[in-house]
Specification:
The structure holds 2 protein chains of 2 kinds.
Chain A (H helix, E strand, L loop, with lengths): L5 H32 L2 H8 L11 H14 L7 E4 L8 E4 L4 E4 L5 E4 L3 H12 L4 H24 L12 E2 L3 H15 L1 H28 L4 H9 L14 H11 L4 E8 L7 E7 L8 E5 L5 E4 L7 H6 L2 H6 L4 H29 L5 H22 L1
Antiparallel strand pairs in A: 1-2, 1-6, 2-3, 3-4, 6-7, 7-8, 8-9
Helix pairs in contact in A: 1-4, 1-5, 1-12, 1-13, 2-4, 4-5, 5-7, 6-12, 7-8
Chain B lengths: L1 H26 L5 H13 L1 H30 L3 E2 L24 H24 L4 H25 L3 H20 L2
Helix pairs in contact in B: 1-2, 1-3, 4-5, 4-6, 5-6
The chains are: A alpha+beta, B mainly alpha.
Chain lengths: 384, 183
């Protein structure tokens, strides 16, 4: 029994085809790069495999090294960063706004951080290598179009339950590609919808913020951001070295189950400088809870992402939810498989259209070039 | 840790049993309503042990991901092996043959700027109606925006009169803007 009227199915199929053709190639690029980008930390380690690793760091040595770097005043920017080692990413990095340096387990500075290929891969996924602000909006629009494709796809699929486990392999190419497309997309739909929604967030949230600012805060976007993400703590007359050792010692008492990820040093060299420790929370999708400390290491408070308003927790969970960066390798493998399925859905969708045309032209050649050329190009650039 | 070791295999078993029931129902001719219903109940109910095993957040993701991955395994073992059909030699052209692809590029303008404006304003208009804090209203709008945009985009591309739909959406955008700004 077909539960959808044939006219609706026909128009949904037409709409699905149109949107698919509009964005199929870009969707493929974003899906493939995003699938690989799930393993960006592993790629970073592979790119600089010679860096000595340790899941722990001597906080006294780190504090000494970091403050020495600040004292040189050569590489100091308004914000400085200290990436702390974890079991999943056992590397320590000191960075300013422009560059970073690895720190050895004994506290000495090593070579510059240089993950050019991984950054290229991430930039391809986030911006399609376009200028960042424009590219981010384009990629977010693809997230929206993915939602459109899922909706029209379901409406154009009246035999969704009847075909739930069908895969007619080795029949006609069109049938084979259609079954591949439908089976992968139907069963993976919840994941794919989540990826579309969370992907749309990154480029489109700015418009929402602008709209709310215009409606509520006379155009002051900073106030909107502070209402969601929290503002900077009030600190005055700060001076001297940053007490990193004390922060890393006290956090074990303040949040015993949290895993410190990195420290951001705000307003470095100013009288209102302070530290913000980002620490992941076990079993949570929120990127981190953020704990503020003054220069001497006195605890000032936290942003409340772990136990604040539900909306605040939800918005701060989008990053890990989209990138699969939680719960370690098993979840990364799941994201790899489901992401690869979405990539295949993008490819098979265009393949269905091509096989229906009953003609071969330059589009077939170009499409094959894109589908096979991208993985070849990524592989070649990775090993070169 | 004890909770994880107990509930993880239980949730996995329930998810896979649900999928197995659906597959068995599908395989039978005619399909079995009992197994189909049991399959959906087991699949839906597995969210509870997943949540107990890994917490609500991680558990929900596994609740969706495990049946998806397992279904592909089931499908791969159930392929119909037709002989490869003769494709024949397709006629070749040197240029681009776009006849079968609708190149109604004006639809792009309707999907992106028009649906975008309408969904942006309507998602926020819906969110501000909720009796919750501004932060929660923002989060609601964040969730609604891509869903509404995607749904409106679907409406436009499926419609036989997309321009009329777009005009309606612009009216909705105007009403939404008024409800947001005139308060």
């Amino acid at each position: 029994m077909n539960i959808l009227p044939p006219a609706l199915v026909k128009s949904a199929l037409g709409g699905h085809k149109w949107v698919g053709l509009l964005c199929g190639a870009l969707m493929y690029v974003v899906c493939l790069s995003g699938t690989l980008a799930v393993f960006y930390q592993e790629f970073e380690r592979w790119e600089q495999a010679n860096i000595p690793e340790s899941a722990t760091a001597d906080s006294v040595e780190l504090e000494k090294r970091f403050n020495e770097l600040l004292a040189d005043n050569v590489n100091v920017t308004e914000h400085m960063y200290l990436r702390l080692p974890t079991v999943k990413h056992p590397r320590t990095v000191i960075a300013n706004e422009n560059e970073g340096w690895f720190v050895s387990p004994d506290g000495s500075l090593l070579e510059n951080v240089s993950h050019d290929w991984t950054h290229m891969l991430i930039d391809l996924h986030l911006y399609l290598l376009l200028p960042n602000s424009f590219g981010m909006i384009v990629v977010s629009l693809l997230g929206v179009l993915l939602c459109t494709l899922i909706f029209t796809g379901f409406l154009s699929h009246p035999r969704i339950f009847k075909d739930a486990f069908h895969f007619r392999n080795k029949g006609s190419r069109q049938l084979e590609q259609t079954d591949l497309h439908n089976r992968l997309s139907v069963w993976g739909a919840p994941f794919h919808l989540m990826i579309g929604m969370t992907g749309a967030y990154f480029g489109l949230v700015g418009m929402l913020v602008w709209l709310v600012a215009s409606a509520v805060y006379d155009g002051d976007r900073q106030q909107v951001l502070e209402s969601v993400f929290g503002g900077e703590p009030e600190v005055h007359e700060q001076a001297g070295d940053f007490s990193i050792h004390r922060v890393l010692t006290d956090i074990k008492v303040i949040a015993p189950n949290a895993t410190p990820l990195f420290i951001t040093f705000h307003n470095v060299g100013e009288s209102n400088q302070f530290m913000e420790l980002y620490a992941s929370q076990p079993g949570r999708l929120i990127y981190s809870e953020n704990y503020s400390f003054d220069t001497a290491g006195n605890y000032l408070g936290k942003d409340g992402f772990s136990d604040g308003e539900i909306g605040k927790q939800l918005v701060y969970s989008i990053y890990r939810l989209h990138f699969g960066n939680f719960a370690g390798l098993p979840v990364k493998v799941i994201y790899l498989l489901l992401g690869f399925a979405l990539t295949l859905v993008s490819v098979s969708g265009i393949n269905i259209w091509l096989s229906k045309r009953k003609v071969r032209d330059q589009i077939n050649v170009i499409w094959s070039g894109i589908v096979w050329g991208l993985p070849v190009a990524l592989t070649a650039s990775a090993i070169s | 840790m004890q909770k994880i070791t107990l509930f993880l295999p239980v949730s996995l078993l329930i998810s896979l049993s649900g999928l197995g029931c659906l597959f068995y129902s599908w395989k039978r001719q005619p399909d079995s309503a009992i197994y189909r219903t049991a399959g959906w109940i087991l699949l839906t109910g597995s969210i509870y042990p997943w949540g107990r095993a890994l917490g609500f957040e991680y558990g929900t993701i596994l609740f969706f991901a495990v049946p998806a991955l397992a279904s592909w395994f089931v499908i791969s073992t159930n392929m119909s092996g037709f002989a490869r059909a003769e494709q024949g030699v397709l006629p070749e052209t040197k240029g681009f043959d776009l006849k079968l692809g609708r190149v109604d590029m004006y639809l792009f303008l309707l999907i992106v700027p028009v649906c975008g404006l309408s969904s942006l304003l309507s998602s926020l208009a819906i969110a501000v109606l909720l009796p919750v804090s501004l932060t929660n209203q923002m989060a609601t709008a964040v969730i609604l925006l891509p869903l509404i945009w995607g749904a409106l985009g679907s409406w436009v591309v499926m419609s036989t009169r997309p321009v009329a739909v777009a005009a309606l959406l612009l009216c909705a955008a105007g009403i939404s803007a008024a409800s947001i700004f005139i308060r």
